[in-house]
Amino acid sequence: MHDHKMTKRRKTEKRTSVLIASVCLSVLTPAVSALTAPFQETLSGEVQDSTRCDSLTSLYEFHAMNGEHGRALDFWRQVQGDCPSSSEELYKDGEAMYTELFSSTGDMAFIDTVLMVISQRTYYFDGKPANDLHKAELLSDLAGDDPAYLGLCYNILAEAAETFPDQMECRHFVLMATTAASLYAMEIIGVEEVDHAFVTAIGTLEARLENNQCDSRHVEDLQNLEVYFTTCGAMTCSSIDRLYSKKVDSNFRDTEFIDKVFTMLTETGCTDSDVYYNVAVKMFANNKSAENAVRLAELNIARNNTERAISYFTEAYNRDTTSAVRSEVLIRVAVMELGQGKRQEARDRAEHAWQLNKRNADALMLLADCYAGAELGSSFDNHTAYWVAVDYLEAAIRIDPSLRKEAEGKIRTYSQLFPTREECFYRKILDEGTVFNVGGWIGEVTRVRFRRE
């Protein structure tokens, strides 16, 4: 019944549930022969007198103590069939003997028999939470990498995490997450399910460690889970939000924690999320550097909050007086203005950035972008702006050869927008290389080049 509920609750577990169902139908069959008869007698209510039960119990205990598991199990089955509620020790002993048989034979059917014994123990003596968690640990220890048993182990733990999480120990949450990771690697469960498992496990471990409800060895477990979750491809922006958004507000002075969340958000591609903006605010509160101010400025640009963006850009400009840093800040402001269609303002910022740092080839690239497409009047006048744009692109390549590929791509495009030979002829411009003054707000001196047609 629990597996059925979990299938309805999480679609990504469908393959696991199907796999487990097939195991229950096929693998359990050989194991049932060892226990069916006594269990059937139990359900029919055929209970013998206590003297016979005590005698049979003594016999199975004697043979078990002497390592005669075959004889011991013969008598154990009789006790289980005749006196199923005689003692909880009966089921502990049965589990131990069948576990030993599995260890000596490697027959996986004995694992199923052990699970059945534990289920009967729960039926007669309650203790479902402890017994279910014990089943999960046994499956993890005994079944190795078998996908069916790993799936059953995970189902038990995931169900426990929803129905009785307070009775789970820290190690159980670690086991749930690591089992989910194995199933995810086997492509048995999907991103949604592994996300759910890791968010639950990491969130629980963090809370318990803070409240000293986990011992210190689980600190390393938590770190390992976070590393895996960050790198496995299952972590989402929503995961990080659920795990850390509240803690960001309450622990914003913990720079190590804030940096950790920032790294997670960056590596997961969550730079446009609300939690990323919140982390950026906290980073600036802790360290009012130009870098942190520029980050906030650009985030506000993305949010169409130009006024606040300018405020943070100004903060960045004032925080660091070195020419190179100020040049970069001005470039960022110019890019924002150009994006708003403010070509002249962007041009002025880019020129200022170039004056501050003559090695900043990005300033030249930006100047080219400001001029390309400028509307100066007639079609001819507009085309002349591309002469100036190409001049700056060529200058950028000379300053920084690493920009060659990007710049040459633009040069090829802009060259197709130069004035035609015919346009130049009507203006008595007959030769390429002639000095020409581009008018309007550009006001640059360049040289004539004809469009190649």
Would you mind describing this structure in some detail?
The structure is a single chain. It is built from 23 helices and two strands. By secondary structure, the protein is mostly helical. It has a domain at 378-453. A two-stranded antiparallel ribbon has the order 1-2. Strand 1 and strand 2 form a beta hairpin. Helix 2 packs across helix 9, helix 8 runs antiparallel to helix 9 and helix 16 (290-302) runs antiparallel to helix 17.
Write the layout of secondary structure elements.
Layout: H1 2-9, H2 14-26, H3 28-44, H4 50-65, H5 69-82, H6 89-105, H7 109-125, H8 128-143, H9 147-163, H10 170-185, H11 191-210, H12 217-231, H13 237-250, H14 255-268, H15 274-286, H16 290-302, H17 306-319, H18 323-339, H19 343-356, H20 361-371, H21 379-399, H22 404-415, H23 421-425, E1 435-438, E2 444-447
Antiparallel strand pairs: 1-2
DSSP E strands, number:
2
Query: What kind of sheet is the major sheet?
Result: 2 strands, antiparallel
- Structural class, by secondary structure, is mainly alpha
Secondary-structure element order, N to C:
HHHHHHHHHHHHHHHHHHHHHHHEE
Q: Cα-atom Rg, whole angstroms? A: 36 Å
> What proportion of the residues is helical, as a percent range?
over 70%
**How far from one another are the termini?**
76 Å
Residue runs with pLDDT of under 50 for 5 or more positions: 1-48
Global outline: elongated
Task: Compute the number of helices.
Answer: 23
Mean pLDDT rating: 87
**What order do the strands of the largest sheet run in, or round the barrel if closed?**
1-2
Hey, roughly how much beta strand do the residues contain? under 5%
